[in-house]
Amino acid sequence: MWKNQLKTIALLGALSAVLIGLGSLLGPGYVYAFGALAVLMNVGAYFFSDRLVLRIHGARAVEPGELPDLEKEVAVLAARAGIPKPRLYVIPDPQPNAFATGRNPAHGVVAVTEGILHLLSPRELRGVLAHEIAHVKNRDILVSSIAATVAAAVSWIANIAAWTGGLFGAANDEEEGPSPLATLALAIVAPIAATLIQLGISRSREYLADETGAKLTGDPEALASALATLERGAQAVVPHHASPATASLFIVSPFAGVDGVVSLFSTHPRTAERIRRLRALAAPRRAPGALHVWE
Fold first, then answer.
1. Is 206 a catalytic residue?
2. pLDDT per residue over 109-149, tens digit each?
3. Which of these is catalytic: 73, 124, 132, 211?
């Protein structure tokens, strides 16, 4: 628990520093304004980021009895994790994927795409659901949601500031406006820095959720198989609603099939390494004489 709290504090501090840094480049008078904006963004993200992310991806709530097998799996896994049953949403997207959101276990949400429901076997889908419930249990959702929200704000503010006439007009005034180098930092470096902060925390969070989810099901191989299938699906199917700002929330990167600059900033560990670690967890079960019975 305390580790997740430290992650949250460190992340908020780093991203808030980037926001405040944008203000300092625009001028001393902007520092306080951007500092206040950082506080407001963090508070807003804490209370409203789950609704925002669901709306961005067009997710709809699953009605009781609509997907009984899926609802039962979520209820059983949540009980094993010792948390309230998360709300279940479906995203109208053919790319197979899933994510969890919600600021704490009492407000947890698990969202799956239509594509994942058609692609995975029940056993693989159980592994994916356990991974997402692990995110809720570990309180990783608060970190990732705030990271996505504030990083998106940094990019938005930098783009707006860089393209306003005031910024470029002031750049010609050595006393009042930023230098060309500062303008470059504002328009390019700040959004990249925010993205790298997301990247740094996302990898360890995914490994932790993989391990926790595997323990919830007692079946690491199921999640390993699901990850391999999902990566192939993400490479083959272009997502309808994916955004780089929210990519870190998904179990596999929505941009797995994208080459170039986007692929360099993947928020996920290499799938092959995730599979290797999961199979290492399953290895003792394969030892001679070990009982190997899955549901």
1. no
2. 999 999 999 999 999 999 999 999 999 998 887 776 666 66
3. 132
